[in-house]
Specification:
single chain, about 250 residues, alpha/beta
């Protein structure tokens, strides 16, 4: 079994790392390149950068930022946000990203996953799934969890695996921002039914939360933002605590 991974997430707007709740009340938390370099030095296994601005000008800004990250960061990094065509994916991969992630666009047009996987290989594509429980079922949502679709979490995850996704990053919109942990039973079911890695996203408030989703939830990786951005715990200290839980992690 591969070692579990810890992945800081950096939301980027106008070339700066920001943090808020559902993209509201955003505050500046630092330069994304310098912050990423710090996390890499502190032991992060990978990084995720998400462009949360939609303008064409910001797309160009983000592409130049990806080039800067590629020149400075020595660990794998994934980029996403607004990728709706294979040309969008090509632009960011050509700029130096190791992987790209798609979310709403894949739910609208699943062929996008197939096209990117066919051109670049499944190791280059991560599909993010945002879902919430509606009448007892996990319903896939788009646009930051605000728009329910007709897709159900487990069938959608199975479909995108068959279409060539290399990893799935699942966020429970019911848990996101609560800092009360993850729905571990749901992650365990996803991990059991899929043969590709599952990244747990949304809900991390402590090292214990992350330990649970990596053990009880059997997730392959945990993604977090606030606990790192605001200095609540360093990646190094988090990993040392995870080792005490008996979790195989790179130090």
């Amino acid at each position: 079994m591969p070692a579990k991974r810890i992945i800081p997430c950096l939301d980027v707007k106008d070339g700066r790392t920001v943090k808020g709740i559902n993209f509201v009340g955003l505050s500046d938390v630092g330069d994304p390149v310098e912050l990423g370099a710090r996390y890499a030095a502190d032991g992060a296994d990978e990084l995720v950068y998400l462009d949360i601005s939609a303008s064409k000008e910001e797309r160009n800004t983000f592409t130049r930022l990806v080039e800067r990250i590629s020149e400075r960061i020595n660990i794998p990094f994934t980029v996403g946000g607004g990728i709706s065509t294979i040309d969008d994916a090509a632009r960011l991969l050509d700029a130096g990203a190791d992987k790209i992630t798609v979310n709403s666009a894949a739910a609208v047009n699943p062929q996008l996953v197939t096209d990117i996987a066919n051109r670049y290989g499944n190791q280059f594509i991560v599909v993010a799934i945002d879902a919430r429980q509606i009448e007892g079922n996990w319903i896939v949502t788009t646009h930051g969890g605000s728009r329910p679709t007709e897709r159900e979490l487990f069938s959608w995850a199975s479909e995108i695996e068959s279409r060539g996704a290399g990893e799935i990053m699942f966020t429970s919109m019911d848990h996101d921002g609560t800092r009360h942990g993850y729905p571990c039973d749901t992650f365990a079911k996803l991990s059991e039914m899929l043969s590709i890695p599952v990244i747990a996203s949304g809900g991390a408030g402590s090292a214990e939360d992350i330990a649970r989703v990596l053990t009880e939830g059997t997730a392959d990786a945990a993604l977090a933002a606030s606990i790192f951005h605001y200095g609540e715990i360093t990646i190094r200290d988090l990993k040392l605590q995870l080792v005490k839980y008996g979790i195989d992690i790179r130090l």
